[in-house]
Write a structure and sequence with these properties.
Subcellular location (chain B): Cell membrane
Protein name (chain B): ABC transporter permease
Largest sheet of chain A: none
Oligomer: heterotrimer
Number of strands of chain C: 12
Main location (chain B): membrane
CATH class of one domain in chain C: Alpha Beta
Number of strands of chain A: 0
Strand content of chain C: 15-25%
Largest interface: A-B, 54 and 53 residues
Membrane topology (chain B): Multi-pass membrane protein
Mean pLDDT of chain C: 93
Order of helices and strands of chain C: EEEHEEHEHHEEHHEHEHEEH
Largest sheet of chain C: 6 strands, mixed
Radius of gyration of chain C: 18 Å
Helix content of chain A: over 70%
CATH topology of chain A: ABC transporter involved in vitamin B12 uptake, BtuC
Helix content of chain C: 25-40%
Structural class of chain C: alpha/beta
CATH topology of one domain in chain C: Rossmann fold
Number of helices of chain C: 9
Structural class of chain A: mainly alpha
Shape of chain A: globular
Distance between the termini of chain A: 15 Å
Mean pLDDT of chain A: 91
CATH architecture of chain A: Orthogonal Bundle
CATH architecture of one domain in chain C: 3-Layer(aba) Sandwich
Pfam family, one (chain B): BPD_transp_2
Strand content of chain A: under 5%
CATH superfamily of one domain in chain C: P-loop containing nucleotide triphosphate hydrolases
Chain lengths: 324, 311, 241
């Protein structure tokens, strides 16, 4: 009993380390097989793409630790992308644009969380429904043709060719590192973080331990939407113009990153460092397969197969009998 | 009857309202002579919703998001590989082939989810990506036509595949499998202690979902009269929405194919009505989302008040 | 400090059942007995504000009508089923101990690992918790030690009234003796303890007074020399001793 449980905790660390190891191996393979794979520009490109996915995956990580799932992330990304461009294009100050976009995103997420928890609805359906509504409303507002663009500062912030002081990477990379440290501190060292894990680990015991499930669900889903909106604005800087479907690839990629990073979808376990490892693995796989001249279709298939392989290796659930 | 109505009440109420609205707004389209065509139009969504149901009923996070891509792959295999390349046109070859493809993918999903024990949404996400790529490799661009008998299944003969599925499900509900499926879905530990083969039952639910997805793929092929590698995947999420709308609990163990079908018809009728109003697809999108959220909220409130009146 | 007293006035445990009235004072250990499902569980949960209690419960004049009221007035409830409503299985022993009182360890914005550890070590000593390392998962502990951690979690909230729902269920004999000593200590310091137990022996050994429930009503209130196995059992079955 003692031994298996100790192994259980350690296995989470092992998964995270395993995911990082896979990323390193993939990178080694890429460098060996593809000329220029480790060239500075290629690495910078990978880091930027990985960072954008990492920002989009923050919310999914929090929500999955809670035992939920958030399918509204791609829709909120698209919403933020389009609304930010549109408002900025109409001459709003960009700080005000951000306040409005993040505020609305927080409301969307809070609604998702409060409704799912309050009425005990499956968050998959609630976030899907709310996501569809949000996307539809944005389309109606822009009549399907979003306009506007990102301020130069945002574009420079995420530009692959950008630099940050003496560092040869855009400011996005150090910013993400700081954000990662903050997220880890919040999860590990604040009452909110500990309650998040506790609630995900055993919702039935939470109220007796003075944890308010409704409040935590509301706050966590709100945070998820805010980070999705952040990704949407960063993507606006990255691509240069607004596009409502820009978030769609992130629907499954955020879930895949979380799971490959060793966070179980049953709640109560996982870490954002793991998600970062998952993000690196996914980015490496993608870059490697494209570099090997696979067709987009073959890249997609191989992507799916590798996710299945990785998760079969270390993402297995316990047998339901062991929970009897 | 009251029990059935209780669970599906909201979906049925919407159905009636939408049907009347459609009849008033668009009598020509809804004339009896057109029913075959109408059903053919709704069939792929109904099929996808039916396919999504068994794994959801089986509980413990059971879900199959590869239903849409299975439909796309079946379409590509049947039209491109078997009909156009190999010259096989008989329904008695193409239908079994479609169902077999579905069953094989269902078995793979079932193996991953129940034996390897990868979380269902992740396992079927992997399959989703693999199948999407495979379909595009087999069929880079839309191709046609479909055999005439298959196209007829989107018209006058559209009731046939759905009728057969309904009959088979009705029969299945009278075998021990149905009871076991619901038992596993509502409480797998209790079912296990009661001697139900939990893993096998769940595995079979995935196979059943695969077979039904294969059938839905044929209905999709019939409707578009050709094979298109891109349309299948779109059905996944809207089908799950239809299932939830139809009162099937995503926690498992509650609901059935009838509810899923009603949910799908609701979405189809809504689509049809808004199209008649000449409303943009954007509004349609908002309407889908609103109806979906409203439905699950109302079902939850209904369950809650039912529980209270029992207590 | 005025003497602690929790008053229960005309509390009905089920529509139609006779109302229950009693008083529980600081320094007392009150036992709840009865056949399973005869109302003692509802009574205990009512004291914790977890059941609708018609505002029949108050502590020093402050009504305990909700779980939040209980929280504010330092009325602490320890549930029966450790596994489904007690422990957080994925979390460490430390987390499981500190989860209800995380604010106490906060220095600035962050939880101080050192403060938390020190607080845990105090309770570990006092409850004689046998645990490998505080960072080990809670599931690495025996049932008895898990229960001690849960008690430490509850006691960390400085309860005035401690409501225990079958606290020694599935706990080994050695641990029971430790817990009995602890409960007596707490009572001696002025805390009021209400203990629901499925074992009559335990109530006889531990409690000053026993409330016996039958058909969701108070069948008997026994204390002193009259508190014997035969009297309690007779009351449980609705007979005269």
């Amino acid at each position: 009993m003692t031994l298996t449980s100790a192994l259980q905790l350690d296995s989470i660390k092992a998964r995270v380390i395993g995911a990082f190891a896979v990323a390193v191996v993939l990178h080694g393979a890429g460098t060996a097989l593809i000329p220029g794979y480790s060239a500075p520009f290629a690495i910078r490109a990978m880091l930027v793409i990985a960072s954008l996915l990492a920002v989009a995956s923050i919310g999914q990580t929090l929500v999955v630790i809670l035992g939920g799932i958030d399918l509204s992330i791609p829709f909120v990304i698209g919403f933020a992308n389009v609304v930010a461009a549109q408002l900025y294009g109409q001459g709003w100050h960009f700080a005000l644009v951000c306040v409005v976009v993040f505020g609305l995103a927080a409301l969307i997420g809070a609604f998702n969380g409060a409704l799912s928890r309050g009425l005990n609805l499956h968050p998959l359906i609630v976030t899907l429904g709310v996501g569809m509504i949000v996307q539809g409303l944005v389309l109606i507002w822009t009549k399907g043709f979003p306009s506007g663009s990102a301020p130069k500062a945002v574009s420079a912030f995420v530009s692959i060719g950008g630099s940050f002081g003496p560092l040869p990477v855009p400011a996005l990379i150090p910013a993400l590192l700081i954000l990662t440290v903050l997220i880890v501190l919040v999860l590990e060292r604040t009452p909110y973080g500990r309650r998040l894990y506790a609630l995900g680990s055993n919702p039935g015991a939470a109220p007796y331990a003075l944890i308010n499930p409704l409040r935590i669900w509301t706050a966590t889903f709100a945070a998820s939407s805010v980070f999705a909106a952040m990704a949407g604005i960063l993507l606006l800087g990255f691509t240069g113009s607004a596009y409502g479907d820009v978030g769609q690839p992130y629907l499954f990629q955020t879930i895949a990153a979380v799971v490959v990073g060793g966070t179980a979808l049953v709640g109560g376990r996982g870490s954002f460092i793991g998600t970062i490892a998952g993000v690196l693995v996914l980015t490496e796989i993608n870059t490697l397969l494209i570099g090997l001249n696979f067709s987009p279709a073959a890249v997609q298939s191989a992507f799916g197969a590798i996710i299945l392989l990785l998760v079969s290796l270390y993402g297995r659930e316990r047998h339901f009998r062991s929970t009897v | 009857m009251t029990r059935i109505f209780g669970r599906y009440g909201f979906a049925i109420a919407i159905l009636v309202v939408l049907l009347i609205a459609n009849l008033v707004m668009n009598p020509a389209r809804f004339a009896p002579g057109n029913w075959g065509t109408l059903l053919g139009l709704a069939a792929p969504l109904i099929g996808a919703a039916l396919a999504s149901t068994p794994v959801i009923l089986a509980g413990r996070g059971g879900i199959d998001i590869s239903v849409g891509p299975v439909m796309g792959l079946v379409s590509a295999v049947v039209i491109k590989v078997l009909y156009l390349d190999a010259g096989l046109a008989s329904p008695f070859i193409l239908w079994p082939a479609a169902l077999l493809v579905g069953a094989a993918i269902g078995a793979f999903n079932g193996f991953m989810a129940t034996v390897v024990r990868v979380q269902p949404i992740v396992a079927t996400l992997g399959t989703y990506l693999i199948l999407g790529g495979l379909t595009l490799t087999i069929l880079p661009a839309p191709i046609g036509p479909a055999p005439d008998w298959l196209k007829a299944m989107a018209g006058a003969w559209s009731f046939l595949p759905l009728g057969i599925i309904a009959a088979l499900w009705w029969a299945l509900c009278r075998t021990p499998f149905h009871g076991q499926l619901m038992a596993v879905g509502s409480d797998d530990r209790a079912a296990y202690t009661a001697g139900v083969p939990v893993t096998l039952t769940r595995f079979l639910a995935y196979v059943l979902t695969g077979v039904l997805a294969g059938a839905a793929g044929m209905m999709l092929t019939a409707l578009i009269g050709s094979a298109d590698p891109k349309v299948g995947a779109n059905y996944t999420l809207i089908a799950i929405a239809a299932v939830a709308l139809g009162g099937v609990s995503l926690a498992g163990g509650r609901g059935g194919l009838l509810g899923a079908a009603i949910g799908a018809v609701d979405i189809f009728l809504l689509q049809s009505l808004l199209t008649a109003f000449n409303v943009s697809t954007y509004v349609l999108q908002v309407a889908y989302g609103t109806i979906l959220v409203a439905a699950v909220v109302l079902i939850a409130l209904q369950d809650r008040s039912a529980k209270r009146s029992h207590a | 400090m005025p003497d602690l007293s929790m008053r229960i006035r005309d509390l009905t445990l089920r529509p139609g059942a006779a109302a229950v009235s009693t008083q529980i004072s600081g320094g007392e250990i009150v036992g709840l007995a009865g056949l399973d499902g005869h109302g003692q569980d509802v009574f205990l949960r009512s004291l914790a504000g977890l059941e609708r209690n018609q505002a029949a419960v108050d502590l020093q004049g402050n009504s305990i009508a909700s779980f939040r009221d209980a929280e504010k007035n330092a009325v602490v409830y320890v549930p029966r089923d450790r596994r489904s409503t007690g422990i957080f299985p994925g979390l460490s022993i430390l987390d499981n101990f500190a989860i209800a009182t995380p604010g106490r360890d906060r220095r600035g914005l962050l939880i101080s690992a050192k403060a938390r550890r020190a607080r845990y070590e105090d309770w570990k000593e006092r409850l004689q918790i046998k645990a490998p390392s505080p960072d080990a998962p809670i599931t690495a502990l025996s049932g008895g030690n898990q229960q001690k951690v849960l008690l430490a979690r509850a006691l960390a909230r400085d309860p005035k009234v401690l409501l225990l729902n079958d606290p020694t269920r599935g706990v080994d004999v050695a641990t029971r003796l430790v817990l009995y000593d602890l409960f007596r200590d707490l009572a001696a310091q002025g805390m009021a303890l209400v203990i629901l137990s499925s074992e009559i022996e335990e109530i006889l050994v531990l409690c000053n007074r026993v409330l016996v429930f039958r058909d969701h009503a108070l069948a008997a209130e026994i204390s002193g020399a009259a508190m014997r196995t035969d009297t309690v059992i007779a009351a449980m079955f609705g007979r005269q001793a």
